[in-house]
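Subject: Sanity check before I submit

Could someone independently write out the structure tokens for this chain? I want to compare against mine line by line before I put it in a report. The sequence has 280 residues.
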Amino acid sequence: MSKKKNQWNLKKTLASLAVLAFVGGALYYGLSGTEAKSDDSGNNPDAKTVIVGTGANFRPFVYQDGDGKDTGYEIALIQAIDKKLPEYKFKVDHYEFSNLFPALKNKKIDIIANQIESNDERRSEYDFSETGYTNYDLHIQSLTGGYESLDDLKGKKVYAIAGGNAPALLEAYLEEHPGAFEIVYGSWSDQVLLQNFKNGTVDATLATKYTVNFTNKQLGSDYKVSKTAINESSTYYLFRKNDKEEAKLNKAVSRVLKEFKEDGTLKNLSEEYLGGDYTK
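---
Independent answer below. Compare away.
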């Protein structure tokens, strides 16, 4: 599993983002989009329902297929875990990214499954699964290429979704290099983002290689990515702290994740949905 490169001090920036996420979440409940149930709810009538919070249009992790059904790596993995835990019945609810965190704190959901990276602020507020399940190495994505470090983005407009580690990295860099580039915040779909790249609204963003490869395949785009990663990390499930039932759930889910790593299930799902093994 990759170790995160602590290139900049993110503490101050991430703390600010956490506050913004909490405030935004209070305004968003009831507008979180569609719900989707796991394909397998088991045969146990006493199974406890677990609400899994995830995104809605986050390809290739979670999105809707041509029939409007949930699909993607996150969905497939949650369904596979559900089948291994007959004492639980998983149900998926969709949220904007920044609203997942207050939803977990306020017991609207029981797990966050949305490619969440680890950092000190999050570790202080939430419990993480004992095992990570995806490498999440961020590269610079653009239509032109030629960007190998944040220094290369001088004078450019860089797209980011508020609440994640990517904008935190960008904001931390700007604290040390004021005015180096402009961050353009948004929550656009893949199609809208591509159009904004084409019309010059944005010049670059941070993304994983497999996300870019998936987008190029789906949209016929020709995005380029930097050869080197700007940041290396892994993703985890998040649970509420100081909650006995959540701790029990975390232990069960983490046990299955470990099994899936050992028996190749996680690798197979990664290859199917992400185009390669990004679970090491």
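---
OP: Matches mine. For the report I'm noting this point. The longest helix spans residues 244-263.
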